[in-house]
Structure formats: structure tokens, C-alpha cells
Specification:
alpha+beta
């Protein structure tokens, strides 16, 4: 096969070949697993993105940039959770980042540029209810505990143990966006590398 023929072959079918390889990687990840339930999210996120790109590939002819595996886009631990939960799409005015997963526990470390008080805690509690709705048997989005940690920080613990939906994960980010003086919010920063954050637009 001539070089020109090879180039045309890989331009036309390279994406599908990479797709098969990537599907095998997903299956391998699902079998091997990882700490803190990371493999579940990585697998779900990668599968969803993979299927979306397969659809794009099927509608695009001679596409060479559908599957960009060299960029590491699928498996960068410092951003995969932000992308999966859509943190970058929330239009937050402060820096927000989900550093890692710890089963059903989401621990938010909210840092402020202003002094926080008990009134701030109450304001946040009310804002969460506005974003997620009043908790009830028909609206179980988890147990939420809010604690003032220092003069300029609040800790929010979200326990999804008895929840049947995960809207509070982003609902807490949205509620914090209604408060003044929030500088940054990191989820489960003690488990992973929280040095990098996603900045809301």
C-alpha cells in the first residue's frame, strides 16, 4: 500500500480504529477499578464522551481530530470530575474544583475574602434549599451539614447515602454563588491534588 493510500486509509478509518482501542481501555478500567470510586466516574465520563464522539465521527467524513488521545483529555485526574459534573458550565464567579471522590461523601471547603458568621451559614442553608428544593420523601438529595470553620471559611458536608439523585453536588456550588465574598471552593481536597482549580466564567 502506497503512502498516499495509507494516509487516506487512516484519515477515513483512524477514528474508528482508535475508538475500538479506547473501548477496550474502558473495559479494562472497569475491571481493574481504582481508589475512592474514581474508576466508576472515569468509566462513566469516558463512555459518555466516547459515544458522543462516535456520533460525531459517523457524521463527519475524513475527520482526523475526533479522537484526541495524545492530549490525555479523558484521564486527567485534576479535571475529570469537574468535567463530569459540569462545574465549568455553572458560570460561577469564584474558583471551583472537585479534587477527588470519597464514596458518597462530598466535603466542600469554601474560602471567603470576607468574614463569615452564623448569618452566613443560615444564608447558605436557605440558598441551598432554593437551588435544590425542600427536602422530602419525594426530593431526597442527601444530608447536608454546614459548619463555620474559621472567620473566613465554611465547610459543607454532603452525604448522598440516602439520596436518589445528585443535584445537590452542583446545587451547593450554585448556592455559594449567591453569597458575597466567596474566593474558592474545593471538594474533597484532602484526598487529591487541589492545587489546580476550574475557574467559573
Amino acid at each position: 500500500m502506497q503512502n498516499g493510500d495509507m494516509n487516506r486509509f487512516f484519515r477515513r478509518y483512524g477514528g474508528y480504529i482508535c475508538g475500538v482501542i479506547f473501548a477496550a481501555v474502558i473495559v479494562t478500567l472497569a475491571i481493574i477499578g481504582s481508589k475512592h470510586s474514581s474508576s466508576d466516574i472515569l468509566t462513566r465520563y469516558s463512555k459518555e464522551k466516547f459515544m458522543k464522539q462516535v456520533e460525531e465521527a459517523s457524521s463527519a467524513q475524513d475527520s482526523t481530530d475526533v479522537y484526541d488521545f495524545e492530549s490525555g483529555d479523558f484521564y486527567q485526574d485534576d479535571e475529570v470530575y469537574d468535567k463530569f459534573f459540569g462545574v465549568d458550565e455553572l458560570s460561577l464567579y469564584y474558583k471551583a474544583h472537585i479534587a477527588d471522590l470519597d464514596g458518597e461523601m462530598f466535603i466542600y471547603d469554601a474560602q471567603f475574602d470576607v468574614t463569615v458568621s452564623d448569618a452566613t451559614v443560615r444564608e447558605l442553608d436557605e440558598a441551598i434549599t432554593r437551588k435544590c428544593g425542600q427536602p422530602s420523601d419525594d426530593n431526597r438529595y442527601g444530608e447536608i451539614f454546614i459548619t463555620k470553620k474559621t472567620d473566613k471559611s465554611i465547610e459543607i458536608v454532603l452525604d448522598l447515602g440516602n439520596a436518589y439523585e445528585d443535584k445537590a453536588i452542583t446545587g451547593i456550588f450554585k448556592a455559594l454563588n449567591e453569597l458575597n465574598g466567596v474566593r474558592s471552593v474545593t471538594v474533597n481536597g484532602g484526598l487529591g491534588d487541589s492545587s489546580k482549580g476550574s475557574v467559573g466564567t
